[in-house]
Amino acid sequence: MCEYCGCQALTAIRDLTNEHEAVVDLIGAVRAAHRDGDTPRAAEAARHIAALLRPHTEVEERGLFPALAGEFPDHIAVLEAEHRHIEAVLGEAADGTPADPTWPGRLMDTLGRLRAHILKEQDGVFPAALALLSTADWEAVEAVRARVGTALPNATG
What is the pLDDT of residue 8? Predict the structure, then answer.
């Protein structure tokens, strides 16, 4: 992931990036399961992605995005809409392997969108936040993280 702008020096961004990296690894696991025709294994990995994204999305939408919405309202609205779509498709596996035969294909399409979404955040949102957020804004982001925690094992955030 990106390291050119220095935003990784901030704990909040470093934690979000670590979560992105874990999600990208799990996307690989879903792709392997899909390639093998193992929909139950893909569903299990989808549940892990959803678990990682729950606190991650909360930090973004309750901490980071509000501080950027005044400057980039349309961009933030698109990111939040993408969150809802990703959550919906991943959520179909919440109780097991979806019976809908279209789900594996929709999951793969959605994970492609998720990967593109991560790049938008890494290459756009995080550097913009570094440039624009005040100390009070960063404290608000950290307060959300303290409240919601992280789904990563052994995380310091």
Answer: 60
Q: pTM of the entire structure?
A: 0.91
Residue with tokens 């959520």: 91
State the burial class of residue 95 (Cβ atoms within 10 Å of its Cβ: 0-12, 13-18, 19+): exposed
The contacts of residue 23 (CB under 8 Å, 6+ apart) are 49, 52, 53, 56, 114, 118
Burial zone of 116 (CB within 10 Å; 0-12 exposed, 13-18 middle, 19+ buried): exposed
Q: Residue holding tokens 């729950």?
A: 54
Cα(38)–Cα(36) distance, rounded to whole angstroms?
Answer: 5
Tell me the per-residue pLDDT of 2-60, one tens digit each, with 9 for 90 and over: 455 555 668 999 999 999 999 999 999 999 999 999 999 999 999 999 999 999 999 99
Whole-angstrom distance, CA of residue 8 vs CA of residue 44: 30
Q: Give buried/exposed letters for 124-141 (b at 16+ CB in 10 A, else e).
A: ebbbbbbeebeeebbebb
